[in-house]
Amino acid sequence: MEKLSMVLGDYAHGRALLNGDVEIPGRAVEPVEVTPVIGAYRRMIRDLEFDVCELAPTSYLMARQAGVALTAIPVFLNRRFHHADVQCGAASGIRFPADLAGTRIGVRAYTVTTGVWVRGILHDEYGLDLGSVTWVVDDEDHIEGRAPSNVEHVTDGRSLSELLRAGEIDAALSGNAGTGRAGAPRAGWSAPAESTEDGPYPLFPDHEVLALDWHLRTGIYPLHSVIAVRSELVERDPDLPTALYAAFAESKRRQVEADPEWSALPRLGKQARQLGADPIPYGLGANDASLRALVEFSRAQGLLDADFPAEPRQLFADGDYPDA
Q1: 63-116 confidence digits (pLDDT tens)
Q2: Where is this region: Disordered (predicted)?
Q3: 268: which of 11, 33, 145, 256 lies 20 to 30 Å off by Cα?
Q4: pTM for this model (two decimals)
Q5: Average of per-residue pLDDT across 170-183
Q6: Do the domains 86-215 and 2-80+221-315 match in fold?
Q7: How far is CA 137 from CA 94, 108, 212, in A?
Q8: Class of the 86-215 domain?
Q9: Which CATH fold would you assign to the domain 2-80+221-315?
Q10: pLDDT digit string (tens) for 276-320?
Q11: Alpha helices in 56-206 (DSSP H)
């Protein structure tokens, strides 16, 4: 039986596949732990180190454009809204999206998917000229050479959370896309220390209302963590994408059956209640609007060429992908 090395984040809906309870015919899954999982992205894109690996969707699209020997299946293990992600410095004076013009905003790397979604929202919904912002980054992109000239790199080793507290940037994205890390960007990240000083505040205090309104108007539900496969494996076995997809869908089905309230991942449970629907839909039909929006945002931000395909079927390996 052929081994299939696989890297996933810690998702309850993926565990049955990793532990062998859900099988892929003719394959034995060999889990590889990388913490945090984003530490595996660059290794997969640059070295094809794993057979199957969770990737940031924007990184996958850019890798595909660059000719990296990867293909993907439409499994998105993680989803979330992004109106809460812009955190403003305590003394920044920022109150409205228009106030971001002329400021310095921190983001781990320009091409991170959260950054693409946030910039797309700020531009399309609020008219922010993205070129008027200096984007301050403290990590390198997985695929370099696409960041615009208004990107500035941190060179003294300080994290974005430190810069935001010091007032040297005006705002920053939160979590792994920005301030959710202390020290240099590498595997084994630690969270920044709690500060007793007045901390940053959200650009959108009513972010949940705004995010749900945006979703209902546009049909977009920001996706993360697409599943990428080494193209060589698909060329040798064209049935592998369908088999992999079915296994991921079955692993998710078992978890939902055992935990219909998503108590293992409360954030997804909350999103399920907000949406009144599956918080992590798989497949092409259920994700059409989100996939097209991500391509559109990435093109507009210079990360993909203008002729990069937006048709979802063209972005994935040939296979059978019923919504699941």
Answers
A1: 999 999 999 999 999 999 999 999 999 999 999 999 999 999 999 999 999 999
A2: 175-194
A3: 33
A4: 0.94
A5: 83
A6: yes
A7: 20, 5, 29
A8: alpha beta
A9: D-Maltodextrin-Binding Protein; domain 2 (3.40.190)
A10: 999 999 999 999 999 999 999 999 999 999 999 999 999 999 999
A11: 57-65, 113-126, 160-166
